[in-house]
Amino acid sequence: MIGPERILLVEDDRALRQVIVTALQHGGYLPDAVPDGIQAAQRLRSEDFEVVLLDIGLPFVDGWEILAQLQGRHQPAVIVISARGEEGDKVRALDMGADDYLTKPFGADELLARVRAVLRRVHAASGAHHVVCCHDVTIDLGAHAVFRAGQEVRLSPTEWALLGLLAENAGTVLDHRTLLGRIWGPSYIGDRNYLRTFVQRLRRKLEADPANPTVIVTVGRHGYRFGPIPDRSMHS
Ligand code: CA
User: Fold this and answer.
1) How far are the Cα atoms of 54, 59, 103, 194, 198 from residue 82, in angstroms, in the given order?
2) Residue pLDDT, tens place only, 182-211
3) Does 230 score more than 90 pLDDT?
4) CA of 36 to the centre of ligand 1 (A)
5) What is the whole-number distance in angstroms between the Cα of residue 58 and the centre of ligand 1?
6) What is the whole-number distance in angstroms between the Cα of residue 82 and the centre of ligand 1?
7) CATH number of the CATH domain containing 207
8) How far is CA 34 from CA 7, 31, 88, in A?
9) Torsion angle, CA of 46/52/54/58, rounded to 10 degrees?
């Protein structure tokens, strides 16, 4: 790690803002905070952050709009923090490119655990230069780059983490619990909404026909596989 990670907090509640900033500082991060969507958009245009903690209910420009502006960018990772705990909002946030969703109120430990998990995915770029191909999709696991028909495809950190894990294990079925546990963490192994949403996101970006996927294949009721079944066994 080169230095403390920069985190932008977008939160209009002054007291909560202070609490979160203090928690992040104690966690060893470099937090910055803004109280509204206009300032958030300005900062995100001109500066680099590893993570954005994004409230949804904000003055002027709400969190959904910020999320829409960030969509398709590899960084920053986005954790939505919202008082709205409805499942529909959570799915919508994940669908719009958020990496995680945290319902208020939450404790400092929970917040720091989520930030650590998302940063692990941001930093998961390292690894050997190992290229995996399927149809017109080429994934360079080391360079953290994916191309479809020669065009680079932009993925969020969590999309990367999921695609990378599947591609590293190309031809092998990974079950839901393994994928949820490895990408999101042990407390998520029952939360299939995350997995389903992210698989759909990847399919929309990578598949010629997302309804009949051939790159990320659904295998029965238990899991997913990257690409076809290999016709000979490979030594790892
Ligand atoms: Ca708010």
Assistant:
1) 8, 14, 5, 17, 20
2) 899 888 888 898 999 999 999 999 999 999
3) no
4) 9
5) 5
6) 7
7) 1.10.10.10
8) 11, 10, 26
9) -20
Domain of 103, in residue numbers: 6-122
* Same domain? 164 vs 91: no
Phi and psi for 53 in degrees, rounded to 5?
A: -100, 115
Cα 13 to ligand 1 centroid, rounded to whole Å: 6
Record the pTM.
Answer: 0.62
Domain end, chosen from 122, 155, 170, is at 122
pLDDT of residue 33: 98
Whether 103 has a pLDDT exceeding 60, the answer reads yes
Question: What is the Cα–Cα distance from 108 to 104, expressed in whole angstroms?
Answer: 11
- What is the three-class DSSP state of 56? coil
- Give the Cα separation of 214 and 111 in Å (integer): 37
Average pLDDT value for residue range 115-131: 69
Q: Residues with Cβ within 5 Å of ion ligand 1?
A: 12, 55, 57
Check if the beta carbon of residue 70 is closer than 8 Å to that of residue 45: no
- Phi first, then psi, for residue 91 (nearest 5°) are -65, -40
